[in-house]
Specification:
141 residues; mainly beta; Jelly Rolls; six-stranded mixed β-sheet; 12 strands; 0% helix; globular
Length: 141
């Protein structure tokens, strides 16, 4: 399974006890991904590099951490159940779709490979994309 001591990761700030819907594409076939929230753990094998893996995970704490070599990450349309996203510890991410939440914080400061960021429909008051040199598409309102 995924070695969380060395794996890149994404951290969400979430509502404890709520179901959080995620989807992602991981690097390489049969890629291990581990999702941890409090005492709840979900071990996943993302078999395809072309198709999104869909997961609904119940939050066991106010944070949910997704470990693994994720290239494309989606946590859209979770409403007030997701209020923060820190992707800075997964520098291989090329696409993030986090629209339709209640994000007040979005950290993509180390994501230099990021090409696509969709973050409209949130509560963001600022967004620093100055280090995102590969960014070609930014959807925000």
């Amino acid at each position: 399974m995924c070695d969380i001591s060395t794996a890149p990761y994404i951290t969400l700030t979430v509502q404890n006890g709520e179901d959080i819907e995620l989807s992602f594409i991981a690097k390489g076939g049969n890629a291990p991904v581990k999702i941890v929230s409090g005492t709840k753990e979900y071990n996943i094998i993302a078999e395809s590099t072309d198709d999104y893996y869909y997961a609904t995970c119940n939050a066991g704490a106010s944070t949910m951490t997704i470990y693994g070599d994720i290239l494309k990450f989606v946590c859209s349309s979770n409403g007030n159940r997701v209020t923060g996203l820190d992707a800075s510890h997964n520098t291989d991410l090329t696409e993030i779709y986090c629209n339709g939440n209640q994000l007040t914080e979005l950290n993509v400061s180390q994501n230099t490979a990021l090409e696509w960021l969709s973050c409209y429909g949130n509560q963001l008051t600022s967004l620093d994309v100055s280090q995102n040199t590969a960014l070609t598409e930014l959807l925000q309102v």
